[in-house]
Amino acid sequence: MVTVRCFAGVRETLGLSTCTYALEKPMSAQAVLTAVAGERLSALSAPPLVAINMQHSRLENLVCDGDEVAFFPPVSGG
Amino acid sequence: MIVRVQSEDFDPEQEARALTATGAGARVSFVGTVRDFSAGSQITALDIEHYPRMTEAELTRVAQQAQRTWDLLDVLIVHRYGRLRAGDRIVLVVTWAHHRKAAFRGCEEIIDVLKTRAPFWKKEITEDGATWVSGEIPASLE
Q: Do A76 and B122 touch (CB under 8 A)?
């Protein structure tokens, strides 16, 4: 099971804040996003950024059972 | 080192007094505030969202990197989230170093890198509606 979290514009566009997803084997963050977002994915204007276990990662990086994966737009702090 | 994320306002001078860096000959503080205008529209409020725990972890990584690069004696970062008004303080970065150049450059590096790595998102509320502020992508991912 992985925990999926979405933030800011990605959360609003996908209508998804937090969910869990059952992994049968490690898969890319992109594949997890596609699985949980379904058809809503096409509403995103650009590919999101991703963090795996709270570390900036890439969509092609693998997500494993027990991981937390987050999707969000480019950050704008400060 | 102190890294803190909070909704409450902060007093920059009082925060800086919380740390005493032995041997410091310089202390540089940066305070970021909410602009009142953006793209010609008056901002009535700013909503700041963040990713709890990753935010603190990322701010700590940014501070540690700058501490190594500039030989900083100590670092303090306070960043707010939630609803803010024009003129409100958003972020405080304080650096201590033996000499001024390291303190200035370390402080600048922290705020610059923070803007590309710390998972905060701003939504500007104006009379015309609400808009997410365009963000930045970490240099390591470009």
A: yes
